[in-house]
Specification:
alpha+beta, L,D-transpeptidase catalytic domain-like, 13 strands, globular
Length: 206
């Protein structure tokens, strides 16, 4: 009986250890949430999340703001995006932002949402990168598409701003300033945000 009891204790300890290994001790988020998945027929590759700095991994944090729940606040300085939950809490995501000369700040709203969106490079981008001319009519959605798995389109009083909150297959760009002005997120994170944020949601970029 003693041996059996010992085996049970050891087994429980091992199970607890394994469970702990599957959860980020810093953020409390399951590593599995950044694993590979199939979405709308497309394969979303796993992200080696331990290679992403902990401050850029999705987590619920204390966040004091006068903005209402459901608002998206983008802090380009710290490279964080907050989805306001209320009660002094928010879901925080790591983001990539516009490189020097391509920054944008202001207040907008989510005018539309798309899953696996088509990406059409603007004329100014094609002039800078002529090799993109082949996508003048739009690059079909898919794992290699620049907009990733989801896109939230930002509108203001004048209409479509041309800026997006979108996914990216380039997870290593999170925490850096290297986009053409849009806010990029890891695909697994933008899928999470997409499910939370509604069309019409206020977006504050500062």
């Amino acid at each position: 009986m003693r041996i059996r009891s010992l085996l049970i204790v050891v087994g429980m300890a091992l199970a607890t250890a394994l469970a702990g290994c599957s959860t980020d001790s810093v953020t409390g988020v399951s590593f599995a949430s950044y694993g590979a998945r199939t979405d709308a027929g497309y394969r979303v590759p796993a992200i080696p999340i331990t290679k992403v700095a902990s401050q850029y991994r999705r987590q619920t944090v204390n966040y004091q703001t006068s903005e209402k729940p459901g608002t998206i606040v983008v802090d380009t300085g710290t490279k964080h995006l907050y989805f306001v939950l209320g009660g002094g809490k928010a879901v925080r995501y790591g983001i990539g932002v516009g490189r020097q000369g391509f920054e944008w700040k202001g207040v907008a709203r989510v005018g539309a949402k798309r899953e696996w969106p088509v990406w059409t490079p603007p004329p100014a981008m094609i002039r800078r990168q002529p090799e993109l001319a082949k996508w003048r009519g739009g690059m079909p959605g898919g794992p290699s598409n620049a907009l990733g798995a989801r896109a939230l389109y930002l509108f203001n009083k004048s209409g479509d701003t041309g800026y997006r909150l979108h996914g990216t297959p380039e997870w290593w760009s999170i925490g850096k300033a290297m986009s053409s002005g849009c806010i990029r997120m890891m695909n697994q994170d933008v899928i999470d945000l997409y499910e939370r944020a509604g069309v019409g949601a206020k977006v504050v970029v500062k």
